[in-house]
Design a protein that fits this description.
Elements lengths: L1 E5 L5 E5 L3 E5 L2 E5 L3 E4 L14 H4 L7 E5 L1
The structure holds FE2/S2 (inorganic) cluster.
């Protein structure tokens, strides 16, 4: 199962079973983490990842959760 947690006032957290692989410019890179936080505020200096800037800009958006079963 893959879960996408949309954190209140924060990033998308993607987590699930298996190996997390980032495909960037046609190249695959294994990310040795169980979950990854992706920016949804647009302010991260390390896109597509969240770097915590959403707190500085006081990003506001509601939470939600999705599952792929
Ligand atoms: S959501 Fe965290 S920096 Fe954008």
């Amino acid at each position: 199962m893959v879960k996408i947690k949309v954190l209140a006032n924060g990033p998308y957290v993607v987590e699930g079973e298996g190996t997390l692989v980032q495909i960037k410019e046609g190249k695959e890179e294994i990310i040795n983490q169980k979950a990854v936080a992706l920016c949804r505020c647009g302010a991260s200096e390390n896109k597509p990842f969240c770097d915590g800037k959403h707190k500085q800009i006081r990003f506001q958006a509601p939470e939600a959760e999705f599952q792929i079963r």
